[in-house]
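MOLECULE: protein
FOLLOWS: sequence and fold
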Amino acid sequence: MTAEGESAPGRAVRVWDLPVRLFHWTLVPLLLAMWWTGEERDIETHSRLGVILVGLLLFRLLWGLFGSETARFAQFVKGPAAIRAYLAGTRPHHLGHNPLGGWSVLVILLLLVAQVTCGLFAHDVDGMESGPLSHLVSYDTADLAREWHHRIFTAILAMAALHILAICWYLVGRGEDLLMPMVTGRKRVPEGVEAPRPGAPLTLALVAVLSAGIAWWIGTGAPLPALGTG
């Protein structure tokens, strides 16, 4: 995910917290594993990995609302004025994602949400293997979900390629290393710039438990509790 580099003068501060970095670096091998299991038609493993992805995405979305300062969508999803100012160089410093990087993060997250949602309701091309929520929709809807599950993956590949190109361009063209801050969590900021506020440990625990619980419930087919007849 795009962020300012560590080449600026000043002091080093922790910009990316551990939850954001774990999400980022867990996502990479998870998506590769899901691609491989899909290609190999190992639908059972593919579905289990998909449920893990559901949990990760739920966590990132909730952490984007209630987590650390730089993880919050309100901090990095900006309007046209902020983008113009960034491109003009009149507001060059950003603690976390710059305005362009922020929108790329949002687009990737939305594509992943759409991808995993389609996978949950889809069945395979033979109609033999199905996502955990496919029983909630018709056969035609599950078939449509399967088609879009493949189409959205192509868009995710395109965004991933654009993401890598952006990292290379910032490094070569602007001398900004966007990769290491996502590894170490730290980057250099100008003197006088305060370190971002971290997320509360209790909030982190609640978000993690809630995300894992919802993902597990979805993975079991989202059964509803039986209501007594009185």
Observations:
- The chain has a mean pLDDT of 87.
- The domain at 11-219 is CATH 1.20.950 (Fumarate Reductase Cytochrome B subunit).
